[in-house]
Here is the input.
Amino acid sequence: MTKRTAAKYKIDRRMGENIWGRPKSPLNRREYGPGQHGQRRKGKLSDFGIQLRAKQKLKGYYGDLTEKQFRRIYGEAERVKGDTGENLIGLLERRLDAVVYRAKFVPTVFAARQFVNHGHVLVNGKRVNIPSYRVKEGDVIEVREKSKQMTVLLEAVQLAERDVPDYVEADHSKMTATFVRTPGLADVPYPVVMEPNLVVEFYAKN
Here is the structure.
């Protein structure tokens, strides 16, 4: 788990956006940044600042990945044929913790990482406890039998604030999900605008 888990709302406030679309986000009450200088008027961002912000927002959304992890995923997206930005989104959405989150087995992406870490998830019948494990199309993700009555699980399924996207088929009666296909940017239900093209520009220049 990242050190950011306890301070996840700071990411929202730092970005000035409710990036997970949560009802409890502090941005629903106040839109300025954290800390004693948070209410100062923000200056206009440079091109570098805009690109950096786009990268931090996307990186933060997936549980605030480390720069090393995110850079490695970006490197893979660059090597694959096709649009690098679209490839990046596809690779991020194929992370096991992201699929567990999308299937609504847990309420947050931070909880998804912890849920996988603690060994509650099977992929094609085998236990996998690595959040960054990359699922393939057709893989079946299942909550372990002993874990199916966990409160966090039962509460997450009832959450009305988000739906399961069409590239994941979830059966909440059996607590299973199938990763149907790798999504593109337009398929992913981000509550805020993500701009992977700016992330590509950022890494191209830095």
